[in-house]
Amino acid sequence: MSFTTLVDAPTLARHLGDPTWRVFDVRHQLADVAYGERAYAAGHLPGAFFLHCDRDLSGPATGRNGRHPLPDPAVLAARLGACGVGPGTQVVAYDDAQGMIAGRLWWLLRWLGHTPVAVLDGGLGAWQEAGGALSTEPPQAAAAAFAVAPGAATVDAVTVQARIGKPGTLLVDARSPDRFRGENETIDPVGGHIPGAVNRFFRDNLQADGRFKPAAALRQEWAARLAEVPASQVVHQCGSGVSACHNLLAMEIAGFSGSRLYPGSWSEWCADPARPTAR
Prior knowledge:
Elements: E1 6-7, H1 9-15, E2 21-25, H2 35-42, E3 49-50, H3 73-82, E4 90-94, H4 100-111, E5 117-120, H5 123-129, H6 157-163, E6 170-173, H7 177-181, E7 198-199, H8 215-226, E8 234-237, H9 244-254, E9 260-261, H10 265-269
Parallel strand pairs: 1-5, 2-3, 2-4, 4-5, 6-7, 6-8, 8-9
Helix pairs in contact: 4-9, 8-9
């Protein structure tokens, strides 16, 4: 059995040491980009590899392509293969940020055509609550051949701009409501949102304990948000294409498959003053 959305801590514990499973620690903080490596060195899930949000899960930023542009598929595939991820490998991603960074790795693997990938529900906290131990030992794995295949779809800024004001496409912004309104913007140089976008804060996908809401609850909430727009016509964005993946994951859990990501998101959009903005 493969896991394609979420996996809980007890299930993961039963598979630690399974050669067909690979676990990745993707802890990260926007304000302290060295945090994840320090936290990983201090203690991680046994056998987990570390991937950095900026270096591994993103490509080079130019100032015009967003804060977390997509990585080169071949480069990411080589990195994953070096960690032992091959065809059929069950990948599990975890963080301590309510799944925000783990969701990015989940989506990236699907973008590369690899579907057996899941986020640890509740992250590091759920692992420790279940009695899971941490390790400082470096992981060991034989390299594997990771082959890139067609996967999850994306849209670019040109496509997004062409759809403004036209029916049929729903643009969903995963940022906090205040940033969506253009208030308290401390990350990007311009506040506001893409005209026509609706707001669904990624944390609204979660329960109070940091785990995802049940599928039925997510389906009800997302159905109300989509207002009968088919999933294939939904485009997700956020500040830089990271937390938007959390909404993609939530829709998948809810049974709404086929929505797309605008990777550049607001940080790319607002870098061009010719593009319209709303507050």
